[in-house]
Design a protein that fits this description.
This protein is of the alpha+beta class and about 950 residues long. The chain folds into seven domains: about 100 residues, PAS domain (Beta-Lactamase, 2-Layer Sandwich), CATH 3.30.450.20; about 90 residues, Beta-Lactamase (2-Layer Sandwich), CATH 3.30.450; about 100 residues, PAS domain (Beta-Lactamase, 2-Layer Sandwich); about 90 residues, Beta-Lactamase (2-Layer Sandwich), CATH 3.30.450; about 60 residues; about 160 residues, Heat Shock Protein 90 (2-Layer Sandwich), CATH 3.30.565.10; about 130 residues, Response regulator (Rossmann fold, 3-Layer(aba) Sandwich), CATH 3.40.50.2300. About 45% of the residues lie in helices and about 25% in strands. Strands 1, 2, 3, 4, 5 and 6 form a six-stranded antiparallel beta sheet that branches. The longest helix is centred in the first third of the chain and has 67 residues. The two termini are about 125 Å apart. The C terminus is likely disordered.
């Protein structure tokens, strides 16, 4: 049913009873008003009747008094004055007359009555004859024609018998005099009628009505009511009146009193009240209807908003992460969201069910009693409970109201698990804290912890107390001028003191040594470290300071420093000795190499050639030994300056393989190279080649059967170009695990107890290790005894391709008039002669000199500038070979090719030669190596000359 129809029916149901009640009330009020008017009129009628009887009684009393007083018997002279006096005392409506036996009035209070004859009046005769008090009837009396009521009593004559009659006349004016000054209710009339029903008095006064008979119906009703008052409604002159009358049987029995009241006028207040009530009722009804309409509108709006609120609430409750259920006071479920259904799958269709059954997991046992108590006391509760069947922990909040109970609950199993874990962690942390405290208290180092910014020291362990010789100051910052040893813990205060710096500046101090004097005077050295502890916002909150007594360590450091200095001095002496020894040995060896190379032209028989080959092999071995000693000396002296550049790796490996192929073939060892021939690496070609040669030489020395292999593998890496791994592997004797780190030591060899010099000095791997550090090429080794070893060098690949190496060239000159000229300078005559003969064998015209001055002089004497110079670095009188090169080049006016041939191991030669753009050749050098270097230098010079000629011709073309 629509809401507006419900409201209408509600209004009708409310208004109809109210209207009926209103009409009944108005009817009852009207009846009550009529009864009230009738009763009031009857009371007035009784009062009038009583007043009339009182006046009549008073008249009879006056009559009896006059008769008894003998006034009538006094005669006229005495009677009239008495009457005059009585007239002044009696009311105007009461008059007295004294008549003789014939009825003539001879004495009266009203002079008008004197002389009137009453003898014909029946009541006069009755009073005279009977001697009793006689009441007459109302009648009109001249001269004013007013109605009067006579009371007559005979008086005796002096001689006996009735002497006449005394009459007391009651004028109807008594009604006007008694009530005329009093206001009557609107529409009320009072009428006094005689026995015949003629009006004798009327109030309000209406002279025309006196003497006229009363309405017949009224008169009949008055006669019909014998002995009782009557009340009836009559239509009098078009006006409906309610008339209350007293009949002849009551009162004076000579008159009737009737009081009439206009019914409409009497009921007017009731009608006015009824109209006002009806208007008020109608207004209230109208206002009620309007209010109901407005209320309905507001109700509909509120209801709409409530519906929206309910929908929003339901949406919120559905979307909330909490499970929500609402129960009424009888524990019946009125709402449950989807989350609650998910958490309690056994609840099914919960709406309308008993919550204790649907939510048994939540409301069983102590939980149910808690919720019951919350429902009864209307106090919110919060608790956690575990489902008996599911084992799930629920966090429950209950909010009771007058309508029921709202439950909010969620799955708290994970939180409980986390809390249990947190409790366990707390216990573990407490145990760890206790352990940490125990550790700190037993640390060998002293520990102080100060808080910022106050500097208050909050933790001091026992070791710190023992080191400091007592408790430290309570606050870090006790003062230290930094110019003397701090006392009493002052070194942990202001200024340069670590703890103060960590607190105030956030500085981390690492093992700074401070002199410290304990309170007992003991001097010591403390190593102090201080670290600030920062909050997440970077603010320093704590500083931790550690103390260690480093007196013994300082003594050991001094001893170690002295030992190191002695070892360094010994090492330098060794290096100097090796350098000097290698230089002195290289000079004669260089001569031997040169002359051995020359002998090949002069020995043709097979036996001689075989002996010469053996001699060269021995010289090569000796050269290898000296080169190793020299290399170690140079590396230790820091004289090696790597020249890193991109170059093709395959050319270097092919050259190494070619040089070692005869040896491998002679030992019948299989050999192969596995490589990417396009690989380009960034390194020093000479130094990397030396590393690979040393590794390959080691593999050949310690492999008697099987194979030796060089493999190049490309590695994935984030470095530009990537990395290449050069692996030298063999199937030799292998290296025991305990020797893997010792093999890189100087003069250390495996399986060579007899120190066979043919197997080297044990410097090859030491040189590899030193070159690895210089070039930053890591070296790794893996080995299994009896199965072989693998040495690997990791080299960076170049981002660009290396320029191809120059093709090997034959000697550019073979002698004759156009043979190139070479200037050879060396202070060792044997070496100088060997060089001269070797150069001549190669087709050069040779000038030789033992010093720079001699070289300059011979060039001046010859008149021709040399094409190439080969100069020893260390000459006589402290002169150096670069001086000779500079002077000769200055004479020639151009920079001819020049090379330094030296046995020096120090960096001085390398630096000086590089400053002048000269290549350095280390003694001893084989003729083959020297020839290769010489040919390369001449090829470069020829190319420069060709480029110069081309440029010159290009310049002449425009001409």
């Amino acid at each position: 049913m629509p809401h507006y129809l419900r409201l209408f029916l509600l209004l009708v149901a409310a208004v109809v009873p109210l209207a009926a009640l209103q009409f009944m009330t108005q009817h009852s009020l009207r009846q009550d008003r009529e009864n009230e008017v009738r009763n009031d009129t009857l009371r007035l009628l009784d009062l009038l009747d009583a007043e009339q009887q009182r006046i009549a009684a008073e008249a009879r009393q006056v009559l009896a008094t006059i008769v008894e007083s003998g006034v009538p018997q006094a005669g006229a002279p005495d009677c009239q004055p008495t009457m005059d006096r009585l007239r002044a005392r009696y009311p105007a409506y009461l008059s007295v007359e004294v008549a003789d036996r014939e009825g003539r009035v001879w004495c009266a209070t009203d002079p008008v009555s004197l002389g009137v004859n009453l003898g014909s009046i029946r009541t006069f005769q009755n009073a005279l004859t009977t001697g009793a008090l006689t009441t007459g009837e109302y009648g009109l009396r001249d001269p004013n024609r007013r109605p009067i009521l006579p009371f007559r009593l005979a008086y005796p004559a002096p001689a006996g018998g009735p002497g006449g009659v005394v009459t007391v006349l009651l004028d109807a004016r008594w009604l006007e005099e008694n009530l005329g000054s009093r206001p009557l209710p609107p529409g009320m009339e009072i009428v006094i009628a005689d026995r015949q029903g003629h009006a004798v008095a009327r109030l309000p006064e209406t002279p025309d009505a006196i003497g006229h008979p009363l309405p017949t119906a009224m008169l009949q009703a008055m006669h019909a009511a014998r002995g009782t008052r009557s009340a009836a409604v009559f239509d009098t002159g078009g006006t409906e009146r309610m008339v209350v009358s007293a009949p002849l049987d009551t009162g004076t029995r000579e008159s009737m009193i009737a009081i009439g009241i206009d019914r409409d006028a009497a009921m007017q207040p009731v009608r006015d009240a009824m109209l006002f009530s009806l208007a008020l009722f109608g207004g209230v009804l109208l206002l009620t209807c309007l209010g109901a309409a407005w209320g309905m509108r507001q109700f509909l709006r509120v209801r709409e908003r409530m519906l929206e609120t309910v929908v929003d609430k339901a949406s919120v409750l559905e979307s909330t992460t909490d499970a929500v259920a609402e129960l009424d006071r009888s524990w019946r479920i009125v709402f449950v969201n989807e989350r609650a259904r998910t958490l309690l799958p056994d609840s099914g269709e919960a709406i309308g069910r008993n919550g204790r059954q649907a939510f048994a997991e939540l409301m069983a046992g102590e939980s149910g009693r808690t919720l019951q108590q919350a429902m009864e006391s209307r106090e919110a509760v919060e608790f956690e409970t575990q489902g008996l069947r599911s084992g799930v922990w629920f966090a429950v909040r209950a909010f009771p109201s007058r309508k029921g109970l709202a439950l909010y609950f969620r799955d708290a199993t994970d939180r409980r698990r986390l809390e249990d874990e947190r409790t366990l962690l707390t216990r573990q942390l407490e145990a760890e804290r206790s352990l940490l405290t125990a550790i700190l208290d037993h640390l060998p180092s002293g520990l102080l912890v100060a808080e910022a910014p106050s500097g208050r020291i909050v933790k001091v362990n026992d070791t710190a107390l023992r080191l400091l010789g007592g408790p430290p100051p309570p606050v870090a910052g006790c003062g230290c001028d930094g110019t003397r040893a701090c006392n009493g813990g002052a070194c942990f205060g202001d200024g340069r003191c670590p703890l103060s710096r960590a607190l105030r500046q956030g500085e981390t101090v690492e093992q700074e040594d401070f002199p410290y004097t304990r309170p007992d005077g003991t001097a010591m050295t403390l190593s102090v470290s201080a670290t600030p502890v920062r909050a997440p916002d970077g603010r320093v909150t704590l500083a931790i300071c550690t103390l260690r007594d480093v007196g013994e360590r300082k003594a050991m450091e001094l001893a170690l420093q002295r030992a190191k200095e002695e070892a360094d001095e010994a090492n330098r002496a060794k290096s100097k000795f090796l350098a000097a020894a290698s230089h002195d040995l290289r000079q004669p060896m260089q001569s031997m190499f040169l002359f051995t190379g020359i002998l090949h032209r002069f020995i043709s028989d097979e036996q001689g050639q075989r002996s010469l080959d053996m001699l060269e092999r021995g010289l090569d071995t000796l050269k290898g030994l000296l080169d190793s000693l020299l290399d170690v000396s140079r590396l230790d002296a820091g004289a090696v300056d790597p020249r890193v550049e991109p170059f093709a790796l395959n050319s270097l490996l092919d050259e190494i393989a070619a040089s070692y192929a005869p040896i491998l073939e002679s030992k019948k060892l299989a050999f192969r190279i596995v490589q990417d021939r396009t690989a380009t690496v960034r390194s020093d070609r000479v130094l990397l080649g030396r590393m690979v040669r040393n590794l390959l030489e080691n593999a050949v020395k310690y492999t008697e059967r099987g194979a030796v292999q060089i493999a190049v593998r490309t590695l994935d890496d984030t470095a530009p170009g990537g990395l290449a791994r050069i692996e030298v592997s063999d199937t030799g004797i292998g290296i025991p695990p305990d020797q893997l780190t010792r093999i890189f030591a100087e003069f250390h060899q495996i399986n060579n107890p007899e120190r066979d010099r043919a197997r080297g000095l044990g410097l090859g791997l030491a040189i590899v290790q030193r070159l690895s550090a210089i070039l930053d090429h890591p070296v790794e080794v893996k080995s299994q005894p009896g199965r072989g070893s693998v040495f690997a060098i990791t080299v960076p690949l170049a981002a660009v391709e290396a320029p191809p190496p120059p093709p090997p060239t034959a000697s550019l000159f073979t002698g004759g008039r156009d043979a190139p000229r070479a200037l050879l300078v060396d202070d060792d005559a044997i070496v100088l002669l060997g060089l001269r003969d070797m150069f001549r064998e190669w087709g050069y015209e040779v000038l030789i000199a033992g010093s720079a001055d001699e070289a300059v002089a011979k060039v001046e004497a010859d008149g021709r500038t040399p094409d190439v110079m080969l100069v020893d670095y260390r000459l006589r009188e402290g002169r150096v070979g670069t001086e000779a090169v500079v002077r000769v080049r200055a004479m020639a006016g151009w920079d001819m090719p020049a090379m330094i041939l030296t046995g020096e191991a120090g960096p001085e030669c390398e630096t000086d030669a590089a400053a002048h753009g000269l290549e350095v050749i280390r003694k001893p050098v084989t003729p083959r190596q020297l020839r290769r270097v010489l040919d390369r230098a001449m090829a470069k010079q020829s190319k420069r000359m060709a480029d110069s000629m081309t440029g010159a011709e290009g310049e002449r073309l425009p001409l």
